[in-house]
Amino acid sequence: MVTIYSVLRGGGVYDEDDVYNLMRHIDENTTLDYAFECISDVGSVSTMPIELGLPKWWTKIELFKNTGPSIFLDLDTAIFKNIDELIKWAESASSSILMLKPFHKKRRPRYGINDHASGVMAWSGDFSYIYTEFIESDMLLKGDQIYIEKKLKEHGADLGYVNEVVDGIRSYKWHCRKMIPEDTSICCFHGNPRPRKVGYPFWVDPRYLDQYKKELTTKRQNSIRRV
Hints:
Elements: E1 2-8, H1 16-27, E2 34-40, E3 48-49, E4 70-73, E5 77-79, H2 84-92, E6 96-100, E7 117-124, H3 129-132, H4 144-154, E8 158-161, E9 169-171, H5 172-176, E10 186-188, H6 195-198, H7 209-223
Parallel strand pairs: 1-2, 1-4, 2-3, 6-8, 9-10
Antiparallel strand pairs: 4-7, 5-10, 6-7
């Protein structure tokens, strides 16, 4: 079974409601079975503890303690169409990984790399070296996605784009600010504004938030790994 991951660091711009909002988007746009895990230091939503205590987005490297089949979605992600094809890809792939194709066409390479983003990822296979080979000075690379891409290329990984499996992945800033294109499957915010500031349909209707919390908390508890 595929495991879909999120990451929440307490004390930042996101909180448990962002986790519930993402779970709602996933739940409404899949027909296949999946498990949900949240790597977090916030007890109400955590199913896996944060071990390294790294700042900001660097906690994402802890995802790769897990060999897959796995999918990762940033908390500022909204889903509008069925993502079963991505789940099927993760279930059938062998030692492969997908990252997001950057939205900014003028994005400049750094350190000879910078053409993959980490807001949406999927993998199956052992990429644990991303986690085990991390050292503090790697944070000088100015972003987890640059580090992840660098390590994958150093190890000769089979690296592709999520966009090649899922059509209609859009940026809120570049494509959805005025109107959501009809073919949008996934909308990535990657910065301000956040989904909760924009509101429905990116953010759950507040009238139903408590209902989703109860329903999705039950699902989350059922997906906790028993060791």
